[in-house]
Amino acid sequence: MVDRVSCAEEIERVFVLRALPTIPIGAEIWKIEQGYFDRSMTESQLAARAYPEGRLRCVTTPAGARKYFHTVKQGSGLVRQETERVISAEEFDALWPLTAGRRLSKTRHRVQTGAHVWEIDEFHALPLVLAEIELHSASESIDIPSWIAPLIVREVTTDARWRNSALVLYGVPT
User: Are 107 and 125 in contact (CB under 8 A)?
Assistant: First the structure.
């Protein structure tokens, strides 16, 4: 078992884009598969499971390596709590069936701009592109790069309907 745990505040702004931007050269591209545990389980069902909440994620890096995570996010809006564990492939494979019917896949383009990384998520089964940036503080201002700015439809940081966990259950909000 791998089991490295990190607990931190996630301070993130999220934007809906009308299309995938022209990604700058040098971007790192990840393939992501993620699934969510059933939130409607009873207390006794939860007690019988290794993980009572959150998501499983498999990230395939440009070199072809696979990394596996179990993540629980709490809160809403700009600042949320995130607890993430690195898990083994065997642990992921054993738990993945528990996410059936609550999965998504996406291609993530990671672009370093100064002290930040912009993450552009292109969803495979949804007509959606999101741009995200993690900040160092909630009061920090951002400069939106010129290759993103003209494609922004709106900011959805505080709208929970645009969280991946909601998208997998309800689809893209109208």
Answer: no
- Respond yes or no: is residue 51 known to be catalytic: no
In terms of DSSP H, where are the helices of 32-110? 43-47, 89-95
How many structural domains compose the chain? 1
Does the pTM surpass 0.85? The reply is yes
CATH number of the domain encompassing residue 155: 2.40.320.10
At 16, list the tokens.
């809906």
Closest alpha carbon to 137 in 45, 17, 11, 38 = 11
Determine the structural domain holding residue 23 and report its residue range: 4-170
Q: Model confidence over 84-134: pLDDT tens digits?
A: 999 999 999 999 999 999 999 999 999 999 999 999 999 999 999 999 999
Selected catalytic residue, list 36, 51, 68, 170: 36
CA 42/CA 24 separation, integer angstroms: 47
Handedness of CA 172, 118, 7, 51 (dihedral sign): positive
